Amino acid sequence: VFNRQGPLFYVLAPIIVEYTSLYVINGTVIRIVDVDTPPKSVSIMVKESPSNGYLYKTVSGEDLELRDNSLFTLEDMLNGKIHYKHVSDKSFYGEMRLVASDGQYQSDVATIAINVISSFGPEIVKNEPLIVKRGGEALLDNKVLQIHDDDSPQSVSVKILDGPYQGLLTIENDNLVLF
Length: 179
Fold this sequence. Notes:
Number of helices: 1
Strand content: 35-45%
Distance between the termini: 80 Å
Radius of gyration: 25 Å
Strand order of the largest sheet: 2-11-10-5-8
């Protein structure tokens, strides 16, 4: 049997995973085809591990982290032994880079996007009236308005539906000020 063709690496879609959840990488997002090499002989190398989580291989019930330059087989992936886990203090968007090899030929490096979705919404924990004296100004800060978000505080945005009836609302040096 001759090895005349290398593996072809297809990224079918980004990995979409819930916040801090596990995602089994089993061929639904990544497809690797090598017509003259069996799956157990096609190795996949982690060129760059996920930027917002970890890649694991399950071996005899134990999870082994796959870091840069780690290897696993196409057979491992097709059998559901490779999985990704988002880390809570990491970004909601990440990437990892993988390459497939049959021992003689190598695919191009593939970039797999990782999108994390949140199941928790922000919660307003404090909403006090902002008191401003005539002709004065007041800072809208966490003494007046507090918003808590368990999984992504950095991505909370506030939309002002009704501005002040009298006065002017401005942003100065990243602070919200009412005149």
